[in-house]
Design a protein that fits this description.
By secondary structure, this protein is an alpha+beta fold. The chain is about 60% helix and about 15% strand. It is built from 12 helices and 7 strands. A hairpin with a 2-residue loop joins strand 3 and strand 4. The longest helix is centred in the last third of the chain and has 27 residues.
């Protein structure tokens, strides 16, 4: 009980500047936390957390030698992190530089017709997977992708199964490049994407998969890849590649990442319908 009273007294003694300070820190953590989805930034975060935990442990146990080593490590730690994690830090800075300032302070959602674009994309990927037609489709989100779109051919067309299949048709002029979809419209096709230099990727993956992973490392985009050799459908997200996805799994993943609110609403509607059916069944049983 006393701890609760102390907490309430602490709140009453807080100034408006303290509240503003807490809100700003919480806001920055909320906005920057998605960066930890990348494998590179996760590695940096683990190293920093490990050093801080070691410093706290050495201070708590009063270990003078360990305290000295940790203090020296913290002194040169910043330089060491920059040297050791130069590629990961570069990707993080590129990602932050590509994020629109407006989207950093707002929580804009995907347009309503993104669901239709996802449905058309899934249908096209299912057919291309069956026919062993390679495809590389980028769903852009907050990051600015104009730099990559300029390397291809501008289209500005509605997303449809026929358009996707025509563009990635093996004899089409744009089939080797990537398609970029922004705001539920095809922004450009035949685009060149940055290749990932990750050592964790399987050796059997070709340029198309490395370009998809590289794009997901440099931006917050969701990248769909269809293998030309095996027909397997994969998704690159935050530098992580999810392989061998079924069309239904692909649809759920895209909806979760691109329109989570609609996914949640769909779930609520399904639960409501189940309750209504259950209620009708019980009423019929009573009759």
């Amino acid at each position: 009980m006393s701890s609760v009273q102390d907490f309430l007294q602490l709140i009453t003694r807080m100034k408006w500047s303290d509240i503003l300070d807490i809100l700003l820190v919480a806001f920055l953590i909320y906005k920057l936390s998605p960066l930890l989805r990348s494998a590179g930034t996760a590695r940096i975060a683990r190293v920093v957390i490990a050093v801080l935990m070691l410093a706290l442990l050495a201070s708590w146990l009063k270990l003078p030698t360990m305290n000295f080593l940790v203090s020296q490590l913290l002194t040169v730690g910043l330089v060491a992190i920059v040297v050791l994690f130069q590629p990961e830090i570069r990707r993080v800075l590129d990602h932050l530089g590509n994020v629109k300032l407006q989207s950093f302070f707002t929580s804009e959602k995907a347009p309503e017709d993104i669901s239709a674009a996802i449905a058309q994309t899934v249908m096209a990927c299912e057919v291309m997977s069956r026919e062993r037609v390679g495809a590389l489709i980028v769903f852009a989100r907050d990051s600015v992708v104009d730099e990559y779109a300029k390397t291809g051919t501008a289209i500005d067309g509605q997303v449809s199964e026929q358009l996707l299949r025509n563009i990635f048709f093996p004899k089409a002029s744009l089939h080797d490049g990537a398609m970029i979809i922004k705001d539920a419209r095809v922004m450009a096709a035949g685009c060149v994407l940055p290749l990932s230099d990750s050592k964790t990727l399987s050796a059997d993956l070709g340029t198309r998969h490395r370009a998809g992973v590289g794009m997901s490392e440099a931006t917050d985009a969701v990248v769909v890849i269809v293998s030309e050799e095996t027909g397997a459908i994969s998704v690159a997200l935050g530098g992580i590649l999810k392989r061998h996805l079924a069309p239904q799994t692909l649809s759920r993943l895209l909806r979760k990442e691109l329109c989570p609110d609609a996914e949640e609403d769909d779930g609520l509607v399904v639960k409501l319908r189940q309750k209504l059916k259950k209620g009708k069944g019980e009423n019929n049983a009573k009759k």
